[in-house]
Amino acid sequence: MENSQQCMRGVWLTAHGDFNKLEYRTDIPKPSPAKGQVLVRVAAAGVNNTDINTRIGWYSKHDSSAEDAAWTGEPIRFPRIQGAEVFPNLIRQIEHGLVKPLVAKTFQLQDITKAQQRFLQKTHVGKIVLTIDTRPPTIQPGVG
């Protein structure tokens, strides 16, 4: 039986290959952050091309050889938890000044098109952030 204080759940990539190289586990040892690092609790994650290409060995310079199948050309150590696209729960770390995100531009959620256009310009340094107005909507008589 796992100890929830010392273990976490996640999906381990055990080797390059197909979907059978992904294992859902509840007994993964929880890492301890070193000085200057934080442990991030991930609330949700997306799967993107980097995760898929890493799993299948696509980054290899020699026909998907596991020897160099990473961006750096160095072998990847397995097992590993992938997550090029995570949506972490960082509120507590930000509130305590442990993490200071670099924000390039903030947009309201309804301006997502403008945010995506800014992203596609590839001139920003830092995160492009979408914010949600948490105030209750204004009800206008005769609308809706």
Task: Walk me through what this model shows.
The structure is a single chain. The chain has 144 residues and is of the alpha+beta class. The chain has two domains: 7-97, Alpha-Beta Complex (Quinone Oxidoreductase, Chain A, domain 1); 101-136, no CATH class. 16% of the residues lie in helices and 27% in strands. It has three helices and seven strands, in the order βββαββαβαβ. The protein has helices spanning 49-56, 91-95, 112-121; strands spanning 7-13, 22-29, 41-46, 80-81, 85-89, 103-108, 127-131. The strands form three sheets. A three-stranded antiparallel sheet has the order 2-1-4, with no helix packed on it. The chain has a two-stranded antiparallel ribbon with strand order 3-5. Strands 6-7 form a two-stranded parallel sheet. A hairpin with an 8-residue loop joins β1 (7-13) and β2. The model has no long low-confidence stretch (mean pLDDT 76).
List keywords for this structure.
144 residues; 2 domains; two-stranded antiparallel sheet
How would you summarize the topology of this molecule?
Elements: E1 7-13, E2 22-29, E3 41-46, H1 49-56, E4 80-81, E5 85-89, H2 91-95, E6 103-108, H3 112-121, E7 127-131
